[in-house]
Amino acid sequence: MAMTPIQRAEALKKGSRVDRMPCAPMIAEYAACYAGIDLRDYLHSAKLMADCHIKCYRQFGYDSVGISPMAGLAEAMGGTLAYAPDTPPSVLKHPLSNWDELDKLIPPDPLKDGRLPLYFEAMERIRDAVGHEVKVGSGMGGPMSVASLVIGTENLLMGMIKKPDQVHQLLQFSTDIIISYMEFCAQRGFGCSMGDGLLSNSLISTRLFRQFVRPYLQQIADWYRDRWGRSPSMHICGDTKNIWADMAEIGFGRLSIDDMMSLAEAKKVVGHVSSLKGNVSPTRVLLFGTPEEVHKASFRCLNEAADNPKGFTLSTGCNLAWDTPPENIQAMLDAARIWYENRNREV
Amino acid sequence: MIKTQQEMLQMLFNAVVNMEDETIGQLAENYIKMGYPAMEGINQGLIPGMKKAGELMEHGVYSIPEILICSMALDKGLSVLRPHLAKEKWEKTSRIVIGVVQGDIHDIGKDLIRVMMELEGYRVYDLGSDVPLEQFINKAKEVQANVIAMSSLMSTPMLGMEKVINMLKEEGLREKISVIVGGAPVSPEFAQRIKADGYAKDIAEALVLMDRLEKNSSPKH
């Protein structure tokens, strides 16, 4: 019998039988594509955002629903975005163009500035419709992502060498924004999951990560644990093997990793303290592949990590791409069920 | 005491490796004032410095922030030494139009590849980031390029690369212009799928790839 995501999570916690492995592809703006809505309209209407996610969830029944303001934070601090019908917005003009203006920066008010209020309204709408079945929450950038929205990635990265004090000041500012946004979510009963695309070892070395990023992730993780009584979760893009152990030490009890990384290796390094999530390729497999290829890739992930001591959720290695065939998403959820049934037959 | 050319070359090398972007300009000027040849300053000082920085990155000592400052130092050194070259010397025949495809503004990797391609002696026309697809075609026609190099760090903009290849076909230019692609979500399989002429995962591979194209072709306009 099919269970709702909430029933499934509760049963798993108790160690009882479920209907399938948990599965939560990173839907993000793909919900608009699925519903046939222009992304520019979606991003400017809480009702459309909610309708798209409700429609998409009802079709597939995956295990969590979340929306994230992403670049909307830059807009809410005075930046401008470039919108496109089928691509998440990118920042045209950052709130800061150079480090001299750092002191003038004002944190955004999530209930007033830019499109941020839309996300709260949309989350409420989604929860009203499907919250009895599935956890609804928010996504949020990590400190590096938010800082790069403020001043641009290149400025931020060069600043680590040329302006270390200002970079620390900006990362603290970003951390305060993140915690305050998460607090707004918490007051309304929404959990928050972080994602950061700028922690990859191909961008910053382990040394720079420990010097500039780790202290701020620690603040956020500590806050989250105090506020929710459980450890926070984070998606880290790119080549991140070098920081897995750090992430676990900081207290991220749930890690979602890029499809370029090995779940089997992650299990060895952090499986005793962190649940894992991942990591079918959203482009190579889900966008361009066939349902059979999705099935195979999903089975590979499950074979590698389903026995992770702290748990495993089948997912994508990054956000779904626009134009991903719905039958491929269905193939992933089917794989989560078939794999689980096969295993129980063997036992 | 006047420094020997060898000492000055070593200092230029060190200035790039050690990210001394604020003092390298003065150093390069002194090198010229001492009467040493600009070409050797570039080929035996600045470029080996940048290559060393690349090695440090491969070994995990440096990462992108350091490399960005090294390439700033390199650029500043080059801007002083280049005007003193006998004449602009483009050793290679390939002309490359490079850019980050529309929808994506990540251009750090592209900038580094451009600098390294220029140093190798290619003529490079940089369109920047978030480049409208037709602009790749228009620029390639304008400068009679034989290579279009595109990158993207995002999966949706990446799909524009195939559109550029189709536009080249429509214009009857596909045989004349090679297309090479790169960027995090781009894979060799994707490059093959869209029938690009080559894929490179990093700067070193991009240079090897260009070397192959250079040997196989020259501008055919």
Could you spell the SSE succession of chain A in H and E letters?
HHHHEHEEHEHHHEHEHEHEHHEH
Overall 3D form of chain A: globular
Could you list the spans of chain A in which at least 5 consecutive residues all have pLDDT below 50?
A: none
Distance between the termini of chain B: 54 Å
CATH architecture of the largest domain in chain B: 3-Layer(aba) Sandwich
Secondary structure: number of strands of chain A:
9
Q: Could you say which structural class the secondary elements and strand pairing of chain B correspond to? A: alpha/beta
Number of helices of chain A: 15
Total DSSP E strands of chain B: 5
In what range is the share of β-strand residues of chain A?
A: 5-15%
Instruction: Describe the largest sheet of chain A.
Output: 7 strands, parallel
Task: Count interface residues per chain for the largest interface.
Answer: A-B, 33 and 30 residues
Secondary-structure content class of chain A: alpha/beta
Neighbour order of strands in the largest sheet of chain B? 2-1-3-4-5
Overall, the morphology of chain B is elongated
Radius of gyration of chain B: 18 Å
Report the CATH superfamily of the largest domain in chain B.
Answer: Cobalamin-binding domain
Broad CATH class of the largest domain in chain B: Alpha Beta
Number of domains of chain A: 1
Task: Report the oligomer.
Answer: heterodimer
Structure description:
The complex is a heterodimer of chains A (347) and B (221). With 347 residues, chain A is an alpha/beta fold. Chain A has a single domain (5-346), classed as TIM Barrel (Alpha-Beta Barrel). Chain A is built from 15 helices and nine strands. Chain A has helices at 5-14, 30-35, 39-42, 46-60, 72-76, 116-130, 143-151, 153-162, 164-187, 206-228, 244-250, 263-270, 282-287, 291-305, 326-346; strands at 65-67, 80-82, 90-93, 136-141, 191-196, 233-236, 254-257, 275-280, 312-316. In chain A, the strands form two sheets. A seven-stranded parallel beta sheet of chain A has the order 1-4-5-6-7-8-9. A two-stranded antiparallel ribbon of chain A has the order 2-3. In chain A, helix 7 packs across helix 9 (164-187). Chain A is globular and about 65 Å long. The mean pLDDT of chain A is 95. By secondary structure, chain B is α/β, with parallel strands linked by helices. Chain B has two domains: 5-84, Methyltransferase, Methionine Synthase (B12-binding Domains), Chain A, domain 1, CATH 1.10.1240.10; 95-216, 3-Layer(aba) Sandwich (Rossmann fold), CATH 3.40.50.280. Chain B is built from ten helices and five strands, in the order ααααβαβαβααβαβα. Chain B has helices spanning 5-17, 24-33, 38-58, 64-81, 108-119, 133-143, 155-158, 160-170, 188-193, 203-216; strands spanning 95-100, 123-126, 147-151, 178-182, 198-199. Chain B has a five-stranded parallel beta sheet, sandwiched between helices. In chain B, helix 5 links the parallel strand 1 (95-100) and strand 2. In chain B, helix 2 (24-33) runs parallel beside helix 4. Chain B starts with a helix and ends in a 5-residue tail after the last helix. The model of chain B has no long low-confidence stretch (mean pLDDT 87). Chains A and B meet through helix 8 and helix 13 of A and helix 4, helix 7 and helix 9 of B.
